[in-house]
Specification:
The chain is α/β, with parallel strands linked by helices. The chain has helices spanning about 1-50, 65, 70-80, 95-105, 115-125, 155-165, 180-190, 205-215, 225-230, 265-275, 280-285, 290; strands at about 55-60, 85-95, 110, 125-140, 170, 200, 220-225, 235-240, 245-255, 300. The protein folds into two domains: about 55-135 and about 250-305, D-Maltodextrin-Binding Protein, domain 2; about 135-245, Periplasmic binding protein-like II (D-Maltodextrin-Binding Protein, domain 2), CATH 3.40.190.10.
């Protein structure tokens, strides 16, 4: 009987255990289905977020191109007419930040002017195509009375040394832009390490840096296009001559879609094609001439042999 009782008890225990297992498995399946549903929804969002937005183009461009009016007045209207289905989101930052956005896949196309950094960007495969678009010159501008004697120098590096020797105020963008990179290169060539109260960094774009320089009646390095577009509101004059060491080249770069699948490479290619087209290159040759007496930029797609 003890044996029989043991068998009966074992059978009852087995039945109860089996029932518990069934309940547990059912609960696991329900939870798994719920989680699977959430995962599917999340995966759907990720998949949606991972798709190219063919109707949007994110353009990261240097502030000098934006502040000069080139994009708003000339390029974007032409692109909108040619590709009305694509909305361009323009983000104006320094060339360094524009390329950092490209590295992170946060922009589809870049318009920048920092040649050495651009070459490195392309060497690391962050971009698939880089084309020359435009050129102009950097210039050192300052007060008309020119206390540092910049106007009497024969090179940009000599001008920077004159500013340092006279302890005149120099206003730097300090924003890792193409202009800032050029400025730091000129200081290095002049054998000067700028510092102290006579050297301030705005961390701002070209337009705002020119306004601050004007307010403080100091010196700064600017691209000629932005200066000319603002000169009527400034008490600053150009103190350097156009020279090879102040040449300023602009490029368009298509961000690598292979690294960042959400990049609108097709839209970026259409934008780049427009910039180097005869339509825009011919317009560049005259842009600003009527208002400022000279073009703000010169076309440079001819470097492609076009």
């Amino acid at each position: 009987m003890r044996q029989a009782g043991s068998t009966t008890g074992h059978s009852r225990w087995s039945a109860a255990a089996a029932a518990l297992i069934v309940v547990a498995l059912t609960l696991v399946m329900v939870l798994a289905a719920g989680c699977g549903s959430e995962a599917d929804e999340g995966g759907g969002e990720a998949a949606s977020g991972g798709q190219v937005k063919a109707d949007q183009l994110i353009l990261a461009t240097t502030t000098s191109v934006k502040d000069s009016g080139l994009m708003d007045d000339l390029v974007l209207p032409a692109f909108n007419e040619a590709q009305p289905q694509i909305e361009v989101k323009l983000i104006a930052v320094g060339s360094g930040e524009a390329m950092a956005m490209g590295e992170r896949g946060e922009a589809d196309v870049l318009v920048v002017h920092s040649p050495a950094a651009e070459e490195e960007f392309m060497a690391q495969d962050y971009g698939t195509l880089r084309l020359p678009v435009a050129r102009n010159y950097f210039a050192i501008v300052g007060p008309a009375d020119d206390p540092a004697g910049v106007g009497g120098t024969d090179s940009a590096t000599a001008a920077m040394k004159a500013i340092a020797d006279s302890e005149s105020l120099f206003v730097s963008r300090g924003d890792d832009s193409g202009t800032n990179t050029k400025e730091l290169g000129l200081w290095e060539a002049a054998g000067v390490e700028p510092s102290g109260d006579s050297y301030i960094e705005t961390g701002q774009g070209m337009g705002e840096t020119l306004r601050i320089t004007n307010e403080k009646q100091g010196y700064t390095l600017t691209d000629l296009g932005t200066y000319l577009s603002m000169k009527d509101d400034l008490d600053l004059v150009v103190l350097t001559k156009e020279s090879d060491d102040l040449a300023n080249y602009y490029s368009v770069i298509i961000v690598n879609q292979n690294l960042h699948p959400t990049v609108n490479a097709a839209g970026a290619e259409q934008f780049a094609d427009l910039l180097v087209s005869r339509q825009i290159q011919d317009a560049l040759a005259d842009y600003g001439r009527a208002e400022f007496g000279q073009p703000l930029f010169a076309p440079n797609a001819s470097a492609l042999g076009r």
